[in-house]
Design brief:
Helices cover 60% and strands 12% of the residues. The protein is of the alpha/beta class. The protein has a 5-stranded mixed β-sheet, sandwiched between helices.
Length: 289
């Protein structure tokens, strides 16, 4: 049985750990909100780019990508985390990605996060390059720009298809795995207004070369897709970490309650023993007289 001093040390340690976990919960909740706001702010920019593509493609006949033709090579970008304490966040997205890429020939993979890279290596999958996960919204733009440069190299080397794999934050389940096709871009989707009318009475007019403008808008479209995937992944990571911290806080609270009950019981027993010793000594002295 532990002494009262040992129990007190255990209680102090549990209290300190509880404080750390609560701080991590607050940081996770703040981070989730930060990346969700980034996604909301990106929606208006995405709408502007879509309108630009719609306007430019009025002059171009666009054919949808062929169906049923498997590209010779596939590039995949898998978003994960650099830090732990987020459950099976990385393992779940790697499992999902490996299933999707099972039949892809000549696949090449970029990993965003050191833990994603480790999970892929554990499955015998080679990683072409690893990017560190940004610690804030400000660090996402340089990351996306570096990935776009890598995708440019892929295209020059003959990679026809690029897939994005990331976890998406959801309220009820914390996150779910999602895959989307980054390349080839189906420009025929932007030729259709989807029942939406042009937002102004003035028809769009482009003064620069339409081919150059189209390439620039497609570049922005790819930037938005990568930025969204990164923000969604980071929001999902912190949501998973928030749930892990909630579970940890509950376990620490239960442990602290158990230690407190044991401490009080043992302290009461010690006080009782001391009182009995006093009474026994008093009776012994009284009997001697």
């Amino acid at each position: 049985m532990k002494t009262l001093e040992a129990l007190q040390r255990d209680m102090d340690t549990a209290t300190d750990l509880q404080s750390i976990v609560r701080t991590m919960k607050v940081l996770a909740a703040v981070s989730i909100r930060q990346y969700e706001k980034a996604l909301v702010s990106l929606a208006d920019y995405n709408r502007t780019v879509e309108l630009g593509l719609q306007a430019v493609l009025r002059r171009h006949r666009v054919v949808a990508p062929g169906r049923g033709q498997k590209p010779l090579q596939t590039g995949a970008i898998i978003f994960g985390s650099d830090h732990g304490l987020c459950g099976r966040y990385n393992e779940s997205i790697v499992t999902h990605a490996m299933k999707e890429l099972d039949n892809a020939g000549g696949r090449r993979i970029l990993a965003v996060g050191s833990r994603i890279e480790a999970s892929l290596h554990a499955r015998g999958q080679e990683v072409e390059a690893r990017f560190f996960v940004p610690g804030s919204v400000a660090g996402m733009t340089p990351l996306v720009q570096n990935m776009l440069l890598h995708i440019d190299n892929w295209q020059r080397e003959g990679i026809e298809r690029v897939l994005l794999f990331n976890n998406v934050h959801e309220q009820r389940t914390a996150y779910r795995a999602r895959v989307r096709a980054l390349l080839p871009v189906d420009l025929s989707l932007f030729n259709r207004t989807g029942g939406r009318s042009w937002p102004s009475r003035s028809l769009p007019l482009a003064t620069m070369d339409s081919e150059k403008l189209l390439r620039s808008l497609i570049r922005q479209h790819l930037f938005i897709a990568l930025f969204s995937a990164c923000a969604e992944s980071l929001a999902g990571e912190h949501a998973s970490r928030l749930i892990s911290m909630q579970v940890a806080e509950k376990n620490i609270q239960q442990r602290l309650e158990s230690l407190t009950a044991t401490y009080r019981q043992q302290r009461q027993n010690q006080i009782t023993e001391e009182l009995l010793d006093v009474v026994s000594g008093f009776e012994a002295l009284g009997g001697g007289q």
